[in-house]
Specification:
The chain is an alpha/beta fold. Helix content is 48%, strand content 16%. The protein is built from eleven helices and twelve strands. Helix 4 links the parallel strand 3 and strand 4.
Length: 334
């Protein structure tokens, strides 16, 4: 009888050991979604999201940064992109994430003044930070990304060099309501003042790629004495290249833009684009993921002071574009 009891105890212990091992394996597995995410300080699963402002190619680089942190930490960060870059779409994504119990949300805000309520509602239930485009009037905890006013000044200084005798220029962007767009334009204006450079047109395209190109074509046709075109968002660069090349005004109308889409870099190498001011989207993704994870684990003590992380910019032109493309390819490859 004693032998039988001992045998039953051994069986129970063995089964318990197996169950315990399986439970630990599930709770620490990376990349398995909310059910297998590690727990945060509250004991709840860590569910994190990275919400862009549109589905541009630009965000593939930021996504590579997110994926690098996922590999290092073993957590999952869900990447969400508003299909048409609309405020309503982004607000719905944020609302859905809140209802699903996410621990932290990083968001590139489309219209900061119009989305304060949506961001504050999210911030009341989880950790919210911004990247790329800030919402400083909201209750977000921190901003990671470019100092867009200084970035605009940097590009504006290049424009002054391109137009030493002054001239006329036009600006193109998805929406000037976005914090990053407004600050970039303000920085450009600050740099070109007192240099006899006039902005004769400011065109918005609501992230419609076809309209982005037709806007440029319309301005090129409307202003025969136009000297330069400037794109503030990543896809504006390729749209400018296509429109300028098709118009036959390559070399006559110069181009200074933002970001590093392939069409923009091709334009620099072909001579259509004089320069581009590139941000560091890889850092947006990596640092946002890391901060959200640390917030979930350690609480608000990890918020930087001041709560702004400037990732910096670089000017790319014909002299350094080839080397930059190599670095970019390495980042994307992980």
């Amino acid at each position: 009888m004693r032998t039988r009891v001992m045998w039953l105890c051994a069986v129970v212990l063995a089964v318990g050991s197996v169950i315990g091992c399986k439970k630990e394996e599930a709770s620490t597995a990376g990349g398995g979604g909310p059910k297998t995410a590690p727990s945060g300080a509250s004991g709840k699963p860590v569910q994190l999201a990275f919400v862009t402002n549109n589905p541009s190619e630009f965000w593939k680089i930021a996504s590579a940064g997110v994926h690098k942190y996922e590999k290092e930490s073993g957590i999952t960060v869900d990447i969400k992109m508003p299909a048409d870059g609309k405020v309503e779409q982004q607000n719905q994504i944020i609302e859905d994430l809140i209802s699903q119990g996410y621990s932290g949300i990083a968001v590139s805000v489309i219209a900061p003044d119009d989305q304060i309520d949506a961001i504050n509602k999210a911030a009341a239930k989880c950790n919210v930070i911004t990247f790329d485009s800030d919402a400083p009037k909201s209750n977000r905890l921190a901003y990671i990304g470019t100092n867009n006013f200084e970035a605009g000044k940097a590009l504006g200084q290049q424009i002054v060099k391109l137009l030493p005798n002054g001239g006329k220029m036009a600006v193109f962007v998805g929406t000037l309501a976005a914090d990053n767009a407004k600050q970039r334009l303000d920085g450009i204006k600050d740099a070109i003042k007192d240099h006899k450079i006039e902005i004769v047109a400011q065109k918005e395209d609501a992230t419609d790629r076809n309209k982005a190109r037709t806007n440029v074509e319309d301005v090129l046709n409307a202003y025969s004495d136009l000297n330069l075109v400037c794109g503030l968002w990543s896809y504006n660069g390729p749209a400018i290249v296509a429109a300028v090349d098709a118009s036959g005004k390559k070399g006559k109308v110069l181009a200074a833009v933002f970001d590093e889409e392939d069409g923009t870099l091709d334009g620099i190498q072909s001579g259509t684009v004089s320069c581009t001011c590139v941000q560091k989207p890889f850092e947006f993704g990596y640092r946002s993921s890391k901060l959200l994870h640390e917030l979930a684990q350690k609480g608000k003590s990890v918020v930087p002071n001041p709560p702004i992380v400037d990732t910096g910019v670089t000017i790319i032109d014909s002299k350094n574009v080839a080397e930059f493309r190599k670095e970019l390819a390495a980042q994307k490859a992980g």
